[in-house]
Amino acid sequence: MNLPELFLKKHEDKRLRNGHLWVFSNEIDSHRSPLEQFGAGDLASLHDHTGKPLGIVYVNPATLICARLLTRKPNSAIGKTFFKNRLTQALNLRNRLFAQPFYRLVFGESDGLPGLVIDRFGDVLSLQITTAGMERLKPLLIDVLIELLTPAAILLKNDSSQRQLENLVREPEVVHGKLPQTIVVEENGARFITDIAQGQKTGWFYDHRCSRAQLAAWAKGMTVLDLFSYAGAWGITAALGGAETVVCVDSSESALALAKESAAFNGVADRVQFVRSDVFDFLKQAREAQQRFDAVVLDPPALIKRKKDYKNGYEAYRRLNHLALQVMESDGLLVSASCSHHLQRDDLHEILRSSARHIDRHLVFIAEAGQGPDHPIHPAMPETEYLKTFFCSVSACM
């Protein structure tokens, strides 16, 4: 494959040689290879400052991450065989991990396909393409997915804010087949009705699957508060695990409607309540009314999306955990999670420690968790590790 060449400055290849897959615009030798000569999504051969090839990248000259490595084999062709090999490898891993076809099939860089996320819902695929490079390769990708999986439908969600950074259109599109009216997700012995076209992200959050199973194992006889409940995955799983009552709180009426339908679908509607409310407002009112719960699940959306949001986001996480602890029964269970990459595990650890001390509670960690195995972590890319969860036993101060 005869590709234009992209050269790095001296000493800028170390991170890539250690396994990372991103190239930043300030690492490019702009005299030898001006970024302006590339179009958004162009393929290029990447070289270190001595001219030694490092692999093949796709390029976007208008973004801070100006290139992403597709392969370290400089003579590879980025065609159908490339996608078939990568997707087959990803599929084989998930088939080893899960008995049913409900999982994240592709997790970007961790599966060697930067800028791409694919969630599988039986014979329906929901895709998020977030880079111009992967957008340019979309026809090849779709052809291989159809050949490999014969899906009934393929939806391009295309609503991620990252697409805007890459100057891509943010319009969902069904590119193959016809979406069924109802999508049913099977997880942990439960079945959930979801709306992948109108729902958040790809339509479901598979990443907490293992943590939800852990909560269900401990939920028997408990009163459970599920905050930011979305379509009820935590709460309904807890009810199936034997929770006495569950209250799901979310600000989205459509999400709660799906959760209510799923509760009935799983035969637990009599034990699950649904409250449409801002979570901060609900917690303040519950505290004032002296409502108490045996278990509280705090799984908010990402409150720190960019580094510059860190201070305000940290404070929001602190307030949420502080309020959640105040509506717990003594000897309760708090499940506190964060999907913000910029909030490190140690940050959440400190928020929980300080919040418990502030209200004079004895808090200990009884388990920790992260993203499920269908969201594998690339050891050279800390950006692929984002989810952290603490299971906390909370009691009166000793």
Give the SSE order as H and E letters: EHEEEEHEEEHHEHEEEHEHEHEHEHEHEE
Our Rg estimate from Cα atoms comes to 23 Å
What's the count of strands? 19
Structural class: alpha/beta
Mean pLDDT score: 95
In the CATH classification, which architecture of the largest domain applies? 3-Layer(aba) Sandwich
Number of DSSP helical runs: 11
- Fraction in helix: 25-40%
**Major sheet: arrangement of strands:** 15-14-13-16-17-19-18
User: Can you tell me the CATH topology of the largest domain?
Assistant: Rossmann fold
CA-CA gap between termini:
68 Å
Q: What characteristic shape results from the CA principal axes?
A: globular
Assembly of the depicted chains: single chain
Question: Any chance you could write out the topology, listing elements then pairs?
Answer:
Layout: E1 5-7, H1 14-17, E2 22-24, E3 42-47, E4 53-59, E5 65-71, H2 80-97, E6 102-107, E7 116-121, E8 124-129, H3 132-136, H4 138-149, E9 153-156, H5 161-165, E10 173-177, E11 183-187, E12 190-194, H6 209-218, E13 223-227, H7 233-240, E14 245-250, H8 253-265, E15 272-276, H9 279-288, E16 293-298, H10 310-325, E17 328-338, H11 345-358, E18 361-370, E19 388-396
Parallel strand pairs: 1-3, 8-9, 13-14, 13-16, 14-15, 16-17
Antiparallel strand pairs: 2-5, 3-4, 4-5, 6-7, 7-8, 9-10, 11-12, 17-19, 18-19
Outline:
The protein has helices at residues 14-17, 80-97, 132-136, 138-149, 161-165, 209-218, 233-240, 253-265, 279-288, 310-325, 345-358; strands spanning 5-7, 22-24, 42-47, 53-59, 65-71, 102-107, 116-121, 124-129, 153-156, 173-177, 183-187, 190-194, 223-227, 245-250, 272-276, 293-298, 328-338, 361-370, 388-396. The longest helix is centred in the first third of the chain and has 18 residues, at 80-97.
